[in-house]
């Protein structure tokens, strides 16, 4: 928990050093929804998506951001992935949250404003809400439809909970709809989503979260641990092909939103653990030599050429704590499952004296 300065504006900046001019470029849209939910729309504009896709496909090593996975269909497919027998992270993290939720609440604090980054279906937070009893819950997710569905489901289950849902790309500058009298902030970042960022990007993101929370603020974060590559490869390339459909759906989205002509049958899903970099990589592989048009721009693909769509870094406990310390946090507690598959960490923002 942390005290907000009286001078802090009602819309606190998650990325204070990069948000200059943001509101001039993108007006905040607030939607009053029934009951205890308020919705704030900070989604990237179609022009932003177009620019990012064209930039990624125009690079020598083609790549697309994993945040593009999460249109409505992509979010549904990811929910299906979390229920697959091969995909251990979700069920393992939930098991840890259920077993140690009371301890986590003691550290994180109760009756505060709880911000969840990458809330998705809000499945995991449901295991903690009874223990945490926040005054306000603020889920942040890039998929508008999924976010609204989850917020309404939570409101039905927790009718006294005040929910402020923010549809946003939390990896880019945006402002959170905070009130000046909200004095206690805490954050929840589950699912090992921090692993989707390269270490330098992860350090920067954690530093921005630390700036938002302020000295003494706490972050509860899920981190996937290194393990047998066979377990990892199966988790990201399941036998039923759901992860493959999830990966290929990215091309369907680009076809729909950017008037592209990707032939999904001409690409295949590939996932593997890169031992040297301690990360799982996901790619879309061109089966043939081909040309694809996206938003009026043509791109050539060689047979076997890939679009790199996702990384998922795996951190040992000590390695992650070093990363967190570089971002201005100190580790207070860590919980793991008995198989050593996954970890959940409580981090506290260092005060100014400790950081100097």
UniProtKB/TrEMBL annotation:
Listed InterPro entries: EgtD (IPR035094), EgtD_Methyltrsf_superfamily (IPR051128), MeTrfase_dom (IPR019257), MeTrfase_EgtD-like (IPR017804), SAM-dependent_MTases_sf (IPR029063)
Pfam families, A to Z: Methyltransf_33
Ranges where the Histidine-specific methyltransferase SAM-dependent domain occurs: 50-348
Keyword tags: Methyltransferase, Transferase
A Gene Ontology BP annotation from the UniProt entry: methylation
Tree of life domain: Bacteria
Gene Ontology MF, one: methyltransferase activity
Secretion signal, residue range per the UniProt entry: none
Protein name, as recorded: Dimethylhistidine N-methyltransferase
Organism annotation: Thiocapsa rosea
